Each structure stands twice: as structure tokens, then as C-alpha cells.
Amino acid sequence: LRPPVAPRSPRHVALWLAAGALLATTLPAAPALALRCPKGAKSKRLREGKHRLRGCVKRGVRHGPYVRYARNGRKAETGTYVNGKRSGVVTRYDRRGRVREIAHWLAGQREGERRVFRRGKVRVRDHWQAGERHGLFEGTYRISTDVGHYALGRKHGSWTTALLTGEKKVWTYVDGQRQGRFEAFGRKGQRVETGHYSDDQRVGAWAGWWPGGGRRYEGTWVHGKRHGAWRWWHPNGALAAEMHFVNGVRDGAGRRLSAAGQVLLEGTWRAGLRQGRFRTYYLNGKVASESTWERNRLHGRQDRFWPGGARQLTAHWKRGVPDGPWARFSTDGVRRAQARFRDGNLLGEGWQPVSPSLRPPQKRGTPAPRR
User: Fold this and answer.
1) Residue 354's closest CA among 334, 336, 340, 328?
2) Mind giving me the DSSP string for 60-105?
3) Residue 34 φ then ψ, to 5°
4) What is the largest CA-CA distance in the chain?
5) Is the distance from CB of 45 to CB of 66 less than 8 angstroms?
6) Segment 131-136 mean pLDDT
7) H-helix or E-strand containing 314?
8) 91-117 confidence digits (pLDDT tens)
9) 41, 35 in Cβ contact below 8 A?
């Protein structure tokens, strides 16, 4: 190996100084904190996984203050051991050296109040007993806050979640599971949703309202699944949809409507799958399509229509794939092209235009179709 070359110019000197400064900032700093160990204990360098520590040791057991360091050499945690177990106040720091957590320990377990900080502000304040959360919990997050109680590590009692925009939800917990009444409130304190829980599952009748006071939905839950008739409404009070559920899946007749009361979709479901005749509509009330379904797949004839009412497409399906004659029509209902499919494959030369001579004769008094 060649010995390092000494700098020979002011530029080399500047580069050497810059490299030395960079190296000093990247290498872990040596801990220089002096520990005051109790009588009979000595300060020693220790390791805890990938972290380095300096702590007091008495007869091979940690006893007294300690400092744990992160990989970059910064202080990560300070506290005290008593006979090998954490006891007293334990403070943890983030990568920038700011306080991240202050907690109380007793005989190796959290005991008492704990505070979690973010950017110098308290974000979580809770209480611990025998190493488990127990008592009041207060949490502040980016868009919401939580206030509730724990009992031996499980949520217990009333819990409230409030958004910064003013909305609020209130639950009741028993041994960590939601039980009893649930309520949600809007920005102005008006009730927007009510229901019940049992063993952490939605049960019974539930209802919701728009912020303006109108009904939004109503239905029934059984063991956490929708069951029975359900209805939804638009903000203007018009019916938006009607569906029937069995064990959480759609089963029975259903329809969807526009805010003006016009039906947009109607059909029947079986075990969550479309089955039978379906029809869709335009906002002007004209039929948009008619089709037949079998186990959620198109099967049989399908017709599509232009907004004016004229036929747009006639198709035939077989269990979800094209099978049979197809035809396309112009906006005035005149056949323009036709084709035939078999098992999803286009036969012959594909789509063929229909010549005027092959078109059906026009009735008397009917204007000739435009070309």
C-alpha cells in the first residue's frame, strides 16, 4: 500500500479538510457522558443487540444509570437499572436527539404515566400497570384524536374518535371488543349515524343521515353482515337504491334510481350473482339495455338502444362469451353491419356491412333511412 500523499497546494489542503470534516460527521461519536454509579458499581461499555451502551454494573448485574446509543452515535435512551431491571424514568430520543418518549418503569415493566412526543409536542398520553395499558388514553394524530380507557391492556369503556374537521364517533368497548350503542356526529354536532355492536360485530337496525338532516340509509345487520331489505337516499330525499341481502350478499330484486326519481337499473340477484332479466335506463327514461344473465354471466339475447330509443346493438351470448348472430344499427334504427360468433370466435370474414338492397322494405308513409 502506498503511504498517503501530503497536500501540496492550497486546493489540496481544502479538499483534505473537507474530507476530514465529512469523515468526522459520518463516524459514530464516542460517548462522553459520565455516569454516576452507585456504591459498588462500575461504569462499563456494554452491547444490546446492535446498540452500544454505557451503564453501571454491580457484580455482573446492571445496577444504576445507563445510556444507550444509536448506530450514528447519538443518544437513543437514558434510564436506570435496579438489580438488572429497569426502574424509574426512561427517556428515549429520536434520530435528531429530540425527546421521543418519557415513561415510568418499575421492576422491568412500565408502571404509571407515559408520554410520546413528536416534534416537541405530546402526541400520546397513557397510563400503564404491570406492563399493560391501564387507565386513561389520549392520542393526537395528524387528522384525528382518540380519548378512551384501557383495562389491563384492552380497551374498556367509552371511546371517542374526533376528526380535526369536527366529525366525531363514539363507541363502547368491553374487554377490547365493541359492545352496545354506536353514534356518529357531523361537524355541527348533528347525529349522522346510529347502530349497535355485539362482540365487535354490527348487529340490529342501523341508520344514517346526511349532514342536512335527510335520511342517507337504513338496514339491518346480523353477525356483522347485511341482511334483509336495505335502502339508500340521495341528499335531496329521493330514493337512491333498494337492495335485499342474505348473509352479506345481494339476493333478490334490486334497483337504482337517479336523484330525479328515474330508475337507472333493475334486476335480480341470487347469492350475490346477477340472475335473470336486467334492464338499464337513460336519465331521460328511455331504455338503455336489456340483457339476460346466468350466474353473473351474460347468457342469451342482449339489446342496446340509443338515447333516442332506436336499437343500437343486438347480440347473443353463451355463458359470458359471444355466441350467435350480432348486428349493429345506426341512430335511426337501420341495420349497418352484422356478424356471427361461435364460442367467442368471430366466424367468416368478420363484421360485414349490410347493403341497402338487403335491408328490410320500408312501410308506406315511413321516410327512408338516412345513409
Assistant:
1) 336
2) TEEEEEEEEE-TTS-EEEEEEEETTEE-EEEEEE-TTS-EEEEEEE
3) -85, 130
4) 118
5) no
6) 95
7) strand 311-318
8) 999 988 899 999 999 999 999 999 999
9) no
Average pLDDT over residues 325-352: 93
Alpha carbon dihedral 173, 177, 179, 182, in 10-degree steps, equals 70
Bridge partners for 199 per DSSP: none
Output the DSSP codes for 168-210. Answer: EEEEEEETTEE-EEEEEE-TTS-EEEEEEEETTEEEEEEEEE-
Predicted confidence at residue 356, as pLDDT, reads 60
pLDDT band at 50 (very low <50, low <70, confident <90, very high): confident
User: Which cell is 234 given?
Assistant: 340521495
Partners of residue 243 on adjacent β-strands: 230
For residues 150 and 135, the answer to whether their CB atoms sit within 8 Å is yes
Task: Read off the pLDDT band of 349 (50, 70, 90).
Answer: confident
Residue 114 and residue 75: Cα distance in Å, rounded?
A: 20
Task: List beta partners, residue 133.
Answer: 128
Cell digits for 120? Answer: 416537541
Distance spanning both ends of the chain, measured CA to CA: 90
Predicted TM-score of the model (pTM): 0.75
